[in-house]
Write a structure and sequence with these properties.
Elements (H helix, E strand, L loop, with lengths): L22 H6 L22 H5 L6 E7 L4 H10 L5 H9 L8 E4 L4 H7 L3 H7 L10 E3 L14 H5 L3 E3 L7 E9 L3 H12 L4 E9 L6
Parallel strand pairs: 1-6, 2-5, 5-6
Antiparallel strand pairs: 3-4
Bound molecules: zinc ion (2 copies).
Length: about 220
């Protein structure tokens, strides 16, 4: 099921490449708007906390994203998630883990047991491994098998994940980083952060490979 990438040719255009992507495709990777809100990673004048995060503060304290979720970053993320291209995980992770703060614990967003069985791996775990830090794999669990967020309209995603996660021990005063491949509405990450905060975590930061920009941007 897992494929391995050939050395010497670009994953996207198949042209000659010294790395996983050729220099042109690498330069084409979509960057996030700057300055951005430190809390949600969307555009914000002066890099201050944005109006949305001020009006309705999310349970997470910060979001770091490597790329915007747009072509061709979406191709890479989907190949990792759905086609078992696991060699993309250290590559995408290396873009992300350039700019992170130090935290007490690193937690990949868990999959349900059903989804893990179906897919055979958790892409968030594969990405988190590239951080080079010990991972807390049993700390946060997915209690409920829910429909894929990607299959639902944005308005239903928050309800879909409510109560979906549990924390297996107290985290009093700890700072925690939560790793995922894509942040779209942030509903899943908000639910994970709320779960970690209820267990006592003092700070929760999202580390995501790609951030979906609002449709009107
Ligand atoms: Zn290329
Ligand atoms: Zn914000």
């Amino acid at each position: 099921m897992f494929s391995f990438l050939f050395r010497g040719s670009c994953f996207l255009c198949r042209g000659a490449a010294e790395n996983l992507l050729c220099a042109d495709c690498f330069a084409d990777l979509p960057r996030l708007p700057s300055p951005a809100c430190p809390r949600c990673a969307l555009a914000s004048p002066n890099g201050a906390t944005c109006g949305r995060c001020l009006a309705e503060p999310p349970p997470y304290d910060a979001t770091v994203a490597a790329l915007a979720y747009a072509f061709p970053a979406d191709v890479l993320v989907q190949a990792l998630k759905f086609r078992g291209e696991l060699a993309l995980a250290p590559f995408l992770g290396s873009l992300l883990f350039r700019k992170i703060e130090s935290v007490d614990l690193v937690v990949p967003v868990p999959l349900s047991r059903e989804r893990l069985r179906e897919r055979g791996y958790n892409q968030a775990v594969e990405i988190a491994r590239a951080s080079g830090r010990p991972l807390e794999l049993g700390l946060c669990t997915r209690e409920r098998h829910t429909p894929q967020q990607a299959d639902l309209p944005w308005s239903e995603r928050q309800k879909n994940v409510r109560g979906a996660f549990a924390c297996t021990r107290r985290l009093d005063g700890k700072s925690v980083a939560v790793v995922d491949d894509v942040m779209t509405t942030g509903a899943t990450l908000a639910e994970v952060a709320a779960t970690l905060k209820s267990a006592g975590a003092s700070r929760v930061v999202n580390w995501v490979v790609a951030r979906t920009l609002p449709p009107h941007d």
